Amino acid sequence: MAKPDAMNRAHGQSGPASLSPGRVVELTVDAIGGRGDGIAKAADATIFIPQTAPGDRVRVTLDETARGVAAGASVELLHPGDGRAEPPCPHFGPCGGCLIQHLTPDVQSDWKRRLVAEALDRQGLGSAPVGPVIAVPPQSRRRVTMAARRGETRLFLGFNERASNRIVDVEACAVARPEIIAILPDLRQLLTGLLRRGETRDIAVTTLDDGLDLVLVGGPPPDLTAREALARFAERVDAARLSWRAAPGSQAEPIAHRRAGTVRLGGVPVTVPPGGFLQATAEAEAAMAEAVVSAVGDSARVADLFCGAGTLTFALARAASVVAVDGDGEAIEALRAGARQAGLDGRIQARGRNLYEDPLTESELRAFDAVVFDPPRPGARDQAGRLAAGGVPTVVAVSCNPASFARDARILTEGGYRLESITPIDQFLWSAHVELVAVFRRP
Description:
Layout (H helix, E strand, L loop, with lengths): L3 H10 L10 E5 L2 E2 L5 E5 L2 E5 L7 E10 L2 E11 L25 H18 L11 E2 L7 E8 L4 E6 L6 E3 L8 H4 L2 H11 L5 E9 L2 E7 L6 H13 L4 E5 L7 E5 L4 E4 L2 E4 L10 H15 L4 E5 L7 H4 L4 E6 L2 H13 L6 E5 L9 H4 L4 E4 L7 H10 L3 E6 L2 H13 L3 E9 L8 E7 L2
Parallel strand pairs: 4-6, 7-22, 12-13, 17-18, 17-20, 18-19, 20-21
Antiparallel strand pairs: 1-5, 2-3, 3-4, 5-6, 8-9, 8-11, 9-10, 11-12, 13-14, 15-16, 21-23, 22-23
Helix pairs in contact: 2-11, 4-5, 10-11
């Protein structure tokens, strides 16, 4: 342990050499960084300290330094700050699924809002109107992917440690819906019998309206014995569907389909593909839909780009004619079937099209009063460029990545749009992710 005078020198009274790896320093955490670590300053360097809160006084052993940035390890909390809260989950710390359970709700919301604001500021849009954060409740996440590994003496089932392939074996989760956590004992028993020592699998679990949808990912195709065990498991936990796929993104092979696998999107029942994309929580989906519908107002003709299986399409179709476009063929077929069964096929046109390779052109876009686009994390640079030149009166962007959104927002504003409002949505509780809905208008 370093002596107190050495610790004091680390606060800036000596040069950066005092921050060499292994040095012990006392610091006060000032803020939260982009990945959820606490930030403190010492000797003109920035110190990132995991699982600390604003106001915390900590004793830290430095484990690496580079270019004025250091990482802290072996953190000892000397005095808690006002931003610290008691984590609700017994697995917090080792489990990498959550990063900021130790922060109070107001600090969390302020941090998520700041992630959006800072991304915009980096694109020269620092004056953009970022509103208050809408947060979903705990135990509301309906879609999770767990990892499993058969060890020498036991099965590990849960989530990876932060920046590691090691699996934290979990028995509880403050994020996932209770019905997902309830099947863990049965799932553990199933995988103990299926996996050989050293084998791993991923298990994607989604709560649908008619039961759980499970997809086992990885490994060889299940043989007859494994299929029988999987079918018995599906019956025991009353799952709607259970499928297997060789790798993420490959075709899912049905093992036990006991019910259709439906979820209501905008009030319309849609049979989604096994393991198909849904917003992580129904509460966030409802907040997004409300914001989007309000933004398009009385627009008569709307394009819903990157529409998936109809997350926003059906809500928009209550008052508008909607052209829904996505490159995922299975999702488009699900949307089309849901519209047909609901009698909305005259109001909704579902089109398969890869918008990254073939974005809607300026002439196509001019047919619409409003355009909604909800791309994956990389954003929609090319489609934003077409929108900027297309002259659509209202554009609504939905995003899960503030950085790519800010880039696309700059393209739109440089094309003459006014960024009217931004609504951050904290869908992924206690993580570094934040969703948002942004409204752009032509003056």
